[in-house]
């Protein structure tokens, strides 16, 4: 049976809308351990309206402004998606919308719009955990990724490793004690006078730098827990920058970026290696904005540690927030029998497990 799902993502500063056509595999739904439970799927349309330029002048996301932008952008994007997909609202089988975690104002816009559209078109609605959405991003294209696997979610708001025993059955193995990895990139960029968001900028400058020029600490590298901490690393960078500024030296931006990026990457990969050792699971998927980072992608696929696992990475454009992952996660949850109330409301601090 073919079904059409409209995905809506508005948890932070990207308005995303996607149209997913999927085929049930019949037997696959029965066995929730199947990673390819969506069978054959086609993304009919994938639209994103990024607010990066709007927020860059403030050096970060301004929540109230983000909500207003979603309000302006969302319905025109839904219209465009339906037009592009050649379908009408009433043809949809499901609307999947991010209901948390995220910024309350941004979430409200998406959830309320989805509720209104669902009611107007007579289509069922499902709320999707944004983190489960990220977890699904590597599953969009990879038909060979099946649970059990480990999911490294590294975004602007989260850094955690989740054990996926089955789709919908998640266990949090560990998370950051303070800043998320993406947040660390964004704060480091600010220290270096680089624009928001910092991750892509540091990634770009690091390409021409020496990752061993500065010996930044690798946070919690050798502890026996799956845990992360990035605030000390950011402070180490800040002290280094201050010292050089006091000495009147020009900042070697490329080397600073490359060294900072190496420290973040080593910290992440060390804990992936630990999680693989502790669980015996040798399938690793990564997602979230920082999974677009070139050094992390290389380390997860080509490093010495990576010989112990196989890694699945979404294409960079699907590491950051998007509605395809929300449509996928929502459709899959619906097929597993998950239902949301018609008066679904957002939860800014929703957890994955
Ligand atoms: O997943 P995402 O789009 O939004 C959240 O759910 O937070 O992640 C955004 C974060 C930002 O902190 C951004 O700086 C970071 O992902 N990011 C990167 C790269 N691209 C985006 N960090 C490092 N390297 C990148 N290439
Ligand atoms: Zn995200």
Write the layout of secondary structure elements.
Layout (H helix, E strand, L loop, with lengths): L1 E8 L4 E10 L3 H4 L10 E10 L1 H5 L6 H23 L8 E7 L3 H18 L3 E5 H12 L7 E6 L4 E8 L2 E7 L5 H11 L6 H9 L24 H16 L6 H27 L3 E5 L6 H9 L7 E3 L11 H12 L18
Parallel strand pairs: 1-4, 4-5, 6-9, 9-10
Antiparallel strand pairs: 1-2, 2-3, 6-7, 7-8
Helix pairs in contact: 3-4, 5-11, 6-7, 6-8, 7-9, 9-10
Bound molecules: 5'-O-[(R)-(carboxyoxy)(hydroxy)phosphoryl]adenosine and zinc ion (ZN).
5'-O-[(R)-(carboxyoxy)(hydroxy)phosphoryl]adenosine binds next to helix 6 and helix 7.
Question: Which tags fit this structure?
Answer:
353 residues, alpha/beta, Nucleotidyltransferase, domain 5, 2 domains, five-stranded mixed β-sheet, 10 strands, globular, binds 5'-O-[(R)-(carboxyoxy)(hydroxy)phosphoryl]adenosine, binds zinc ion
Q: Which stretches are low in confidence, meaning pLDDT under 50 for 5 or more residues running? A: 27-36
State the helical fraction.
Answer: 40-55%
Quantity of strands, as a count: 10
Which CATH class of the largest domain applies here? Alpha Beta
Residue-averaged pLDDT = 94
CATH superfamily of the largest domain: ATPase, nucleotide binding domain
């Amino acid at each position: 049976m073919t079904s059409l799902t409209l995905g809506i993502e508005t948890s932070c500063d990207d308005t995303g809308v996607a149209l997913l056509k999927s085929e049930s595999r019949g037997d696959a739904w029965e066995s929730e351990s199947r990673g390819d439970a969506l069978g054959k799927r086609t993304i009919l349309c994938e639209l994103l309206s990024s607010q990066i330029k709007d927020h860059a002048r403030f050096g970060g996301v301004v929540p109230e402004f983000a909500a207003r932008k979603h309000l302006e952008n969302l319905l025109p994007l839904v219209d465009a998606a339906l037009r592009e997909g050649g379908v009408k609202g009433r043809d949809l089988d499901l609307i999947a919308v991010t209901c948390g975690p995220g910024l309350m104002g941004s979430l409200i816009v998406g959830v309320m719009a989805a509720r209104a559209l669902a009611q107007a078109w007579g289509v069922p609605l499902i709320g999707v955990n944004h983190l489960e959405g990220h977890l699904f991003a590597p599953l969009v294209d990879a038909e060979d990724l099946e649970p059990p696997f480990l999911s490294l979610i590294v975004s602007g708001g989260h850094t955690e490793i989740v054990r996926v025993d089955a789709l919908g059955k998640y266990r949090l193995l560990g998370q950051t004690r303070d800043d998320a990895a993406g947040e660390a990139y964004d704060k480091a960029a600010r220290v270096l006078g680089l624009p928001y968001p910092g991750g892509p900028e540091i990634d770009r400058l690091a390409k021409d730098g020496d990752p061993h020029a500065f010996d930044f600490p690798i946070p919690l590298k050798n502890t026996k827990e799956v845990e992360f901490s990035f605030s000390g690393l950011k402070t180490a960078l800040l002290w280094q920058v201050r010292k050089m500024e006091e000495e009147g030296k020009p900042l070697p931006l490329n080397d600073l970026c490359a060294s900072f990026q190496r420290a973040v990457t080593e910290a992440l990969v060390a804990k992936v290696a630990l999680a693989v050792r502790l669980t015996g699971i040798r399938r690793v998927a990564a997602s979230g904005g920082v999974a677009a980072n070139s050094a992390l992608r290389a380390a997860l696929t080509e490093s010495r540690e990576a010989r112990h696992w196989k890694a699945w990475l979404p294409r960079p454009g699907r590491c950051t927030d998007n509605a395809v992952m929300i449509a996928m996660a929502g459709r899959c949850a619906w097929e597993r029998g998950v239902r949301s109330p018609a008066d679904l409301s957002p939860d800014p601090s929703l957890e994955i497990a």
